[in-house]
Amino acid sequence: MINLSAFEDKIKKGIIDNCYIFCGLDEEMIKDKIKLLQKKVLSENFMDLNLVRFDGDTLTSFDPVINACETLPFMEERKIVVVYRGNFLGDKDDGGKKTLYNELNNYIKSIPTTCILIVYYVFKDKREKPSSKIYALDKKTIVVKGDKIYGRELESKVKNIFAKKDKDIGNVELKLFCSLLPTDMGIIENEIEKLCCYVLDREIKKEDIYALLNKKEDDDIFDLVDLIGDKKVKEAINSLNELMYKGDKANEILFMVERQFKLLYKVKYSLERRMSREEICGEIKLPSFICEKLINQSNKFTLSKLLRALEICLHWEKTMKSSSLDKKIQMELLIIETMTA
């Protein structure tokens, strides 16, 4: 199993295999690497004829994919067949998904040299890891894990995006910009576009970044839980919608809300045991300013209400994995239930 950087290095060196399995949380980053391969292999003139795409969610049989792979490319040495959102690569194993996976597994060694088959699977949340199915395929072909990028690698990538827009950004401003955003390239590109439009022809300043990105993810979750504690239904729903608009997935928001209630429960329990603020900070191993926020926020809840909120979060976590109901609606119901607990 290789990471996205290793994949990119191989493509730039012209080392190209005829099958790739991608997995990871950031779909935009995966699609970005697939586009890199497309540009390396296919000419612009015949891209539409030699690039075939299938929606993994709607596939009932792998036969159409196999037929596309077996068809010769038009005026090119190779063609590319992409199966996007191949959810049959996840742990869930109902009859249809198991069949699709088995058909892919059996076909991998038979892919003709005139075709490159790409299948990618997007993780549902931050806690998901590559499934046993993906590890089994790693023994037969190239599996690329789309881990988040951080530090200098992220800063370099972001700086290049600014450069493509003919916009320069200083090192201090670049570090600040990267620190205020989740490492999701789709969100980052949108925020770069907004920042460039905001400053127009002048240089980017720290004040501009703060003006557009004045809140971190943790602050948003504190706000959401505060509104739950104050029983402000409309405002809490609006806060949820704002988080989802920024690109956070319902599963990720649920994870953060659940984590927040767990921390609040620990803090509330410690306060009732008459522990000092310094002792609580040492117990939960978080910075003092975060501890202060948690202590203040815990005053809005009783221990029993925090315990009930955690039970509700666990219930909806299980429901989201098995229900076809819209995730946004499920999150709204979760928020309403925690307020009325």
Automatic annotation (TrEMBL):
Enzymatic class: transferase
According to UniProt, the reaction catalysed is: DNA(n) + a 2'-deoxyribonucleoside 5'-triphosphate = DNA(n+1) + diphosphate
Keyword annotations for this protein? DNA replication, DNA-directed DNA polymerase, Nucleotidyltransferase, Transferase
Q: Does the keyword Nucleotidyltransferase apply?
A: yes
Supply the SUPFAM superfamilies for this chain.
P-loop containing nucleoside triphosphate hydrolases, post-AAA+ oligomerization domain-like
* Residues annotated as domain DNA polymerase III delta N-terminal: 20-145
- The highest taxon in the source lineage is Bacteria
Question: Which InterPro entries does the annotation name?
Answer: DNA_pol3_clamp-load_cplx_C, DNA_pol3_delta-like_C, DNA_pol3_delta_N, DNA_polIII_delta, P-loop_NTPase
**EC nos:** 2.7.7.7
Domain DNA polymerase III delta subunit-like C-terminal stretches: 219-337
Q: Sorted alphabetically, which NCBIfam families does this protein's record hold?
A: holA
Tell me its family: Belongs to the DNA polymerase HolA subunit family.
Instruction: Spell out the protein name for this chain.
Output: DNA polymerase III subunit delta
Q: What is the lineage of its organism?
A: Bacteria, Bacillati, Bacillota, Clostridia, Eubacteriales
